[in-house]
Amino acid sequence: MELTRLLQSFASLRPRIEALTRGRVGCSATAEDILQDTWVRLSNVRHDDAIDNHAAFAMRAAKNAAIGHFRKQQRRNEIDAEVNDLLWQSVDEISPERIVMGRDMLRAVDAALQDMPERSRRIFLMNRINGVSHREIARQIGISEEAVYYHIRRVVERLAELRDSQA
Amino acid sequence: MGKGQERSEIDRGVALDARDWIVRLTAGNLSRQELERFRAWQAQSPEHARAFAREKQFWQLLQGVNDGNPPAAPVAVPTLRRPVSRRSLLVGGALAASAAAVAAPRVITWMRSDFTTGSGEQATATLPDGSTMLLNTNSSVAIDFRAGRRLVSLLAGEAEFAVKPAAGAPFSVSALGGSSDANGGAYAVRSIAGEVTVTASTGTVSVTGGEAGAAANMVSLAPGQQTRYLSGGAPRSASDVDLDTELAWRAGRVVFDARPFSSAVAELGRYVSERLVFTTHAHDASPITAVFLTRDAHAAIEALAHTQGLSVRRVPGVVIVIS
């Protein structure tokens, strides 16, 4: 691939752009990702003859990418906060004395977990106890996110059955 | 309202959907569209909302499950007499100042101690005689093993000792003016809010306190027994306890068996760095039976408060206000 003048500008400015981006997002791994994105975007610009100042354009592109990253991060945080409220707000419709699980029930749940396939149990515990996301579990174990969902869903179903049978 | 009755009101298909949503919502990386789809699903009928509430509650309760791992300890080998960093003493601002006022006795304890753990930490240490010690959260001990002595001072918190039998002096743990001695076996000593609790798990322990020499001031504990004494006081007679409950902290858990709400919250408060402040006494007196993970103490405090209809606000590192 022939390097366009735009990409040449970007390459020669890279150390400076990287420092600026790192300063903006406060994380060098994230800055690296943003620079990568910027590079891809710049390489898709077809008519770089139309651009007056290639250096300024490249800098602007990196800045926009950093801002885009923040917006995305902010949306992510908003969604996470809403989900958190949904999952952890108190449950008014259910009487308080039942919100704690008795030891007998807990023992039964532990026993049922022990009976689950090792991989399902491990994935469930990673998610429920250690709070690891499906994506991260998928990455660590080397399976798809759908498979992670399936394993956890299966354990939840088994435990819910147990709860309903003991009620 | 019986559970069976409540469940029969929820259609099985709706319950399955509710569990699907629980797993999706807890996946991380939920998209905005999916979140809106969930809200639409939940808003379809009161039955949908109820089904979700039920599965959500169950998901919350699952926090107490056994993850099959041994306890998180040993987290770290405690450091011997770390110098006090200037930074930890130079605090500014009103909030920090009030936190410092609360923390001051802790700092003094910490300077006298040889081993300490912070909030939520546990640590194991091997003592000079080969005995081992497991320190629970927010605990400090000083040791004196000079000239054949085997003295441990529990300055604050809780520790379990596995004592190596030795021909010389007995292994002795002092706390609040009393002393718990053994030569072999394992026992736990806790010193919280001016009261010491001694629990023998294996072997026998003799606990002395109060006026020296008086026979009534010595209690002998058999395995599975416990005694308590107040600062400078004589130990009460031994009683049988459930070791799994009493020593659940070793496995990173707190077990409450019909415990009053305020006492349960105070116990969980030992595992967080914030001070607990109640601005209400409006909680009911119904006792709590539950199992929580100590490493999730913030969530546990919140869950407990919610059972009483109370709200929890937290200023990280400073205070948790329950109102």
From TrEMBL, chain A:
Keyword Membrane applies: no
TM stretches of this protein: none
One example GO MF annotation: sigma factor activity
Keywords of the record: Sigma factor, Transcription, Transcription regulation
One Pfam family this sequence matches: Sigma70_r2
Domain of life: Bacteria
InterPro entries: RNA_pol_sigma-70-like (IPR039425), RNA_pol_sigma-70_dom (IPR014284), RNA_pol_sigma70_r2 (IPR007627), RNA_pol_sigma70_r4_t2 (IPR013249), RNA_pol_sigma_r2 (IPR013325), RNA_pol_sigma_r3/r4-like (IPR013324), WH-like_DNA-bd_sf (IPR036388)
Domain annotation RNA polymerase sigma-70 region: ranges: 11-76
GO terms (BP aspect): DNA-templated transcription initiation
Signal peptide range in chain numbering: none
Domain RNA polymerase sigma factor 70 region 4 type: 107-159
Family to which this protein belongs: Belongs to the sigma-70 factor family. ECF subfamily.
PANTHER family: RNA POLYMERASE ECF-TYPE SIGMA FACTO (PTHR43133), RNA POLYMERASE SIGMA FACTOR FECI-RELATED (PTHR43133:SF63)
Name the UniProt record assigns to this protein: RNA polymerase sigma-70 factor (ECF subfamily)
Record lineage: Bacteria, Pseudomonadati, Pseudomonadota, Alphaproteobacteria, Hyphomicrobiales
Automatic annotation (TrEMBL), chain B:
PANTHER family in the cross-refs: PERIPLASMIC SIGNAL SENSOR AND SIGMA FACTOR ACTIVATOR FECR-RELATED, PROTEIN FECR
Organism lineage string: Bacteria, Pseudomonadati, Pseudomonadota, Alphaproteobacteria, Hyphomicrobiales
InterPro entries reported for this sequence: FecR, FecR_N, Ferrdict_sens_TM
Pfam families: DUF4880, FecR
Lineage: superkingdom: Bacteria
Organism: Aminobacter aganoensis
FecR N-terminal domain residues: 18-54
Keywords: Membrane, Transmembrane, Transmembrane helix
One function term, GO molecular function aspect: sigma factor antagonist activity
Protein name: Transmembrane sensor
Chain segments annotated as transmembrane: 89-108
Domain named FecR protein: residues: 114-205
